[in-house]
Structures are given as structure tokens and as C-alpha cells.
Amino acid sequence: MHIESLTIHPIKSCAPLNVDEVSIDARGLVDDRRWMVVDEHGDFVTQREAPTMARVLVRPAGTGWRVSAGETTCVVEAPDAEARLDVTVWGDRVRARVHAEGSRFFSDALGRAVRLVHFGPEAERAAGSRAPGAKVGFADGYPVLVTTTASLADLNGRLAQPVPMSRFRPNVVVAGAAPFAEDDWDRFRFGEIAARMVKRCERCSIVTVDDGVKTKEPLATLSTYRRSGGAGVFFGVNVVAEPGRLRVGDPVVLQDS
Q: Half-sphere exposure (CA, 13 Å, Cβ side) for 64?
């Protein structure tokens, strides 16, 4: 097995960015989901309620990011620590930094009052309860999301119209595994980096957003064979990993428990 592709999502729920290599720090992939859009109450905003966020492109620009919605662009860099706001992501309160120009950009792009916030170096957030001691930025619950090419091929073989892997917003895509073999992984290595599978990833309606428009697939088909009792529908796995450097092509080797 090997790493087929690597992806970061600099602003949570906006368009992904494929990279050839990336570092992992204490909160997951560097630059992955370190920015987030929040509403007037400080609650996080995603494609669930604002599907057009899928069309907002985020690309490197010097030490920051160029954010584009149609013909409108904005460059954002880490804001000063003085402008802070308590925000909420899945029930966790985080003291984040507010980016004023980025907030105006997203308010215009989404047609509602929102703010763009940054997970500064002083911010703290614990990962989900299945990874005690692990940290995370604005990702849903765990620092690294892993999927496999075989699992997507299995799903697409059941769909009238295939879907791209980007619908599932993974960080690491692994080639060379059997379909859904990742469900049973425990400890493994990305190249020289030790990693551990924490839990299968329960999927929500975001996977049904196709270029900013909500559809029914692939969640409808996944629910016919990837549902576990009343717990939800699963695709991919949540992972914690030690700090290091990941590269496309790195071997992925399962370890003895």
C-alpha cells in the first residue's frame, strides 16, 4: 500500500487543495482546517447549511491564502491576536482570531453576516474522546481523515454516476488496500510516521454537495450497505499520527497490534 494523494482544506468546508507533501504537527496536517467561518453567534458554518462554500477556492499566496468566490478575491494571513472571538465547533469552545477583511469577503459571498476566524498558535482544542491527549484544529473531531481508492471504486460501482474522492474531504488517500479494509486497521505507518486508526468516520450530508448543489448521492447508496445499526453511515477512518512529513508515494505498512 502507498499514499496515493494528500489534501488539505485550509478553510473548513471550502474547496480542497491537493499537495505533494505536507507536515504533521500536534494538531494534524499543517494548514488543514486552521481557518473557519462562523455565524453571528460564533457557531461554525459549513456546506450543510451553505453548500456554495464548496465553490470557494483557497490557494497559497505568500505567507497566507488567496480566497476566491467567482471573480471576487481576498488574501488572508494570520491576524493579530488582539481580535479574538469565542467560537464553537461541535460543542467545543475555542478562542479564535478574527480576520476582518476575510469576514467581509465571506459575508458578501454567502449573503449573510459571518466571520472568518483563525486557529492561532495559542488556541487549544482536544480531539475526540477516543484519542485521549490528542489535539485538533477546526477539523470535526480527529486530526487526520484517511480513505482508500478501493473503497471509492466499490462505491462508484454501485452508483449511476460516479463521485470523486473530494466529496469525502479526506487528508490521505491510500492505494493498494482491499475495499473497506481500513475499517479493521489498528496501528500502521505512513512511511516512517507512526499512526493509529481511532474510529470509522460517520458521514453527513456534506458528501451529497456536488459543486455547491445538494443531491442525494452518494449517501443514499452508502446507507444501503455501510450503515451500522442506528449509529450512522461510514466511509473512511479517523486517524491520529505522530509529527513528521508525509509525501505522495510513501508506503503504508500495517503494524502488529
A: 13
Burial of 157 (0-12, 13-18, 19+ CB in 10 A): exposed
Which element (helix H / strand E) includes 93?
strand 92-99
Q: How far is CA 142 from CA 89, 131, 150, 189, in A?
A: 12, 8, 23, 17
Contacts of 193 (CB under 8 A, 6+ apart): 24, 241, 242, 243, 244, 245, 246
Helix (H, G, I), strand (E, B) or coil at 153: helix
Residues 141 and 247 in one domain: yes
Q: Do 88 and 168 lie in a common domain?
A: no
Residue 21: pLDDT above 80?
yes
pLDDT tens digits, one per residue of 203-241: 999 999 999 999 999 999 999 999 987 779 999 999 999
Q: Which of 71, 88, 118 is the last residue of a domain?
A: 118
* Confidence (pTM): 0.96
The closest of 198, 176, 138 to 9, measured between CA atoms, is 138
Mean pLDDT of 75-92: 94
* Partners of 93 in the β-ladder: 88
- Contact at 8 Å (CB) between 144 and 241? yes
Cis peptide before 218 (omega within 30 of 0): yes
